[in-house]
Amino acid sequence: MTRAYNFSAGPATLPESVLLQAQAEMLDWHGAGASIVELSHRGPEFIQVAQEAEADLRTLMAIPDDYAVLFLQGGATGQQALIPLNFAAPGQKADYVLTGHWGKTAIKQAKPYVDVNIAASGEGEGFRGIPARADWQLSADAAYVHITANETIHGVEFRDTPEVGDVPLVADFSSSIVSEPLDVSKYGVIYAGAQKNLGPVGISVVIIRRDLLERAGQPRADIFTYASHLAKESMLNTPPTWNWYLAGLVFKWMIAQGGVAEFAQRNARKSALLYGVIDGSGGFYRNEVAAAVRSRMNVPFFLHEEALNKPFLDEAKAAGLISLKGHRALGGMRASIYNAMPEEGVQALAGFMREFQQRHG
Amino acid sequence: MTRAYNFSAGPATLPESVLLQAQAEMLDWHGAGASIVELSHRGPEFIQVAQEAEADLRTLMAIPDDYAVLFLQGGATGQQALIPLNFAAPGQKADYVLTGHWGKTAIKQAKPYVDVNIAASGEGEGFRGIPARADWQLSADAAYVHITANETIHGVEFRDTPEVGDVPLVADFSSSIVSEPLDVSKYGVIYAGAQKNLGPVGISVVIIRRDLLERAGQPRADIFTYASHLAKESMLNTPPTWNWYLAGLVFKWMIAQGGVAEFAQRNARKSALLYGVIDGSGGFYRNEVAAAVRSRMNVPFFLHEEALNKPFLDEAKAAGLISLKGHRALGGMRASIYNAMPEEGVQALAGFMREFQQRHG
C-alpha cells in the first residue's frame, strides 16, 4: 500500500515531510556521526533540538513568559495524577467538569489525592453536550477547576474558555492543542499528550503558570514534581529524545504552514465538510452531539444500520482511508482530523461517504 | 561525517541494521499505509509488534512464566518511585545497597514512601568497590532489598547475585540487562531504562515476580500501579509505540546475533581489551575500580594530566570516536560499550589510546 489517509485518533497521522526528514536523518543527524536517538541528551546536538522545540512551541502558541513549558513522559494520564500531587493540598477540594471519557480518567487518577467535586457532568445526556456554565457547582476553596477541552471519544469540544474566577483552570488539551489560537493566560495549566496534534506518542507537553509551581502540593517523589523537572529543563532524568525531536519537527512544519491561525481555518473547513455530509445524509449517517460543541478534531458518526459498519470499513480501506473504526466505548465510526490530516484527505473521505451512501442507501 | 563509533552512556549507539530497518519502514510499516508511529496502539499492527517484543525478550532472558514483563514510560527513575509505592506498606523499611550515583537516585525517589535503610555503602571508598555481602546490615522486616546491578557513572558492577534470603531482591539493570545470561528467578523485580542495551530512550522494561503484584503497597493513582498496567498489557494509557517498536527490532537483532551468551563473550573481550590498555599504560591512563567489580559496560578512566583531556577528546573525534567525555560528576573519560558497540569500535578505541599515549606520553 502507498500511504493512506489515516484517521487514527492517536497515535495519529504525521506530516509526510516530517517523516521524510526523520527518515533522511535516521543514521546521521546533521553530520554528528550518529542518529539523534543515539546521542546524549546533555550534548550540544540534543540541547539544540530541545531548546528549538520549546522556542517554536512558545511562538506557535504565543505562550507568555510567566508560563513554564515542560516536555515529560507519562502521557496525559500521568499528568492527571501529577496535577493534584503538585497543586492541591492533601484533602483539598478540586472541581472537575465531566464531558466525556477522558474527564472520567482525569477524575480516576486524581481521586487518591484530592477531594473531587464533579461540578458539572454531561453524562446524563450521554456526553452529547457541555453543561451550561451557569449550572456548574464550583467550590469556593477548590485547588483548581479541571476541564477536558476536547473529548476525543465523544467528539465534544469546548468552543470558548469558561470563566472560573481566581481558581486556576486546568485543561487537558491532548486532542486540540495548537489546532486554533488560544489565550494561554486564561489557564493555570494546559497539558497534552503529543500523539494527536503535536507529534509522536511518548512525550507530553505541560504548560504551567509559574506561580502555581510554588504550591507545596503533597508528599511525593522528586520525579513527580513539576518544579524539579523545570529546574532541570525537563531533563531531570533522561528524556524521550527521539519523541521530543519529532515533535520539534512538527512544530517547525506548523510554523512553515502558517501557524495556528492557518490551521484553525483548515480545521474549520475540514470539520464543516464532514458534519455537512453527515447532516445532509437524511439519517444515513448520524452524529448526535449538540452543534455548538461538536469537536473540530474528532468526528464520531454512526451508520443507520449496524450491518453496514463492516462494508464501510472494508470499502474505505480499499479506497485508502484507514483507521475509521470508532472507539469500542461508542462503536460506529470516528474520523480524527488533526492538523496533520490534509484537506485532501477529508475531501476524499467526504466523497467516499457520499458514494457509499449511494451504493448502500 | 559518516557514522562514528559512539561511546555515549545512554542514549547510546544502536545496531546499524536496526536503524536501517526503521528508516526503510518510516513512511509505511509492512504495507499498512502508515508508519508504525502513526497507527493505533490497539490496532492489529502494533499489537503484533508489542507481543513479539515481549516474546523475544522472554526468549533472550529466559524469563520464567511466573514473572510479568511490562513496557512502561517514566525511565528507571520513575520506577524508583513506583517500586516503594507498589511493594512497600506505608512506613515499612526497605534496604538499599549503595554502590554509586544511581543508587543515590533510587534512594532519593524512594524516601518519601519508605523507611530507607542503607544496608551497605561504597561511598566512603569513592564508589570504587562493592561492600562485601558479609558486611551488609539488612533489616529483618524489609519490603525488599535494592541494588544497582551496574553503576553507569562509577563503572562498578555486581559480578554475582547477592543472597538476601526470602526478601525480594530489586535491581536496577538499566545498563547491563541482556549483556550476559542472568538467573531472573533470583530477583523479585528487575527494571531497566531501555536506552543502553535495550533500544531507544523513552521506554522502560520492568520484570516482576507475579506474587509481588498482590502486595497492597500504598495509596496511589491507578497510573502508578503495576498490576493495572499488567491487566492492560502495558496499554493502560497510550504507550510509546515507536520506542517499543525500536526496542523490539533490537531484541530480534540480539537473537539473530546469538543471544545473551554470545554478547557475554563479546562484552568480556571488549572490556578486557580496554582495561588492558589502561592497566598497561604505566599510569598514563587510570581506572581505580576494584578489579573484581569493574563494569563490563562502562569503562571510566582518567588521563594522568588533566590538560590532556581536551586533546584526547578532539583527536578521538577526528578519528571517528565520539561521546567519550566522562560524566560531569567524575570528570575524565568514559567509554560505554553496550551490546550494540561492535568489537571493531572498541579495537579502534584501544588503538587510538595507545597511539595517543605514544604521541603525548
TrEMBL record, chains A, B:
InterPro entries: Aminotrans_V_dom, Aminotrans_V_PyrdxlP_BS, Pser_aminoTfrase, PyrdxlP-dep_Trfase, PyrdxlP-dep_Trfase_major, PyrdxlP-dep_Trfase_small. The gene is serC. Its cofactor is pyridoxal 5'-phosphate. Pfam families: Aminotran_5 (PF00266). It comes from Marilutibacter maris. This is Phosphoserine aminotransferase. It catalyses: 4-(phosphooxy)-L-threonine + 2-oxoglutarate = (R)-3-hydroxy-2-oxo-4-phosphooxybutanoate + L-glutamate; O-phospho-L-serine + 2-oxoglutarate = 3-phosphooxypyruvate + L-glutamate. One of its GO terms (biological process) is pyridoxine biosynthetic process. Belongs to the class-V pyridoxal-phosphate-dependent aminotransferase family. SerC subfamily. Binds 1 pyridoxal phosphate per subunit. Catalyzes the reversible conversion of 3-phosphohydroxypyruvate to phosphoserine and of 3-hydroxy-2-oxo-4-phosphonooxybutanoate to phosphohydroxythreonine. Homodimer. GO terms for molecular function: O-phospho-L-serine:2-oxoglutarate aminotransferase activity; pyridoxal phosphate binding. It comes from the Bacteria. Pathway: Amino-acid biosynthesis; L-serine biosynthesis; L-serine from 3-phospho-D-glycerate: step 2/3; Cofactor biosynthesis; pyridoxine 5'-phosphate biosynthesis; pyridoxine 5'-phosphate from D-erythrose 4-phosphate: step 3/5. It is found in: Cytoplasm. The modification N6-(pyridoxal phosphate)lysine is found at K196. Keywords: Amino-acid biosynthesis, Aminotransferase, Cytoplasm, Pyridoxal phosphate, Pyridoxine biosynthesis, Serine biosynthesis, Transferase. L-glutamate binds at R42. Pyridoxal 5'-phosphate binds at A76, T77, W102, T152, D172, Q195, N237, T238. It is an enzyme of class 2 (transferase). Residues 5-349 form the Aminotransferase class V domain. Transmembrane segments: none annotated.
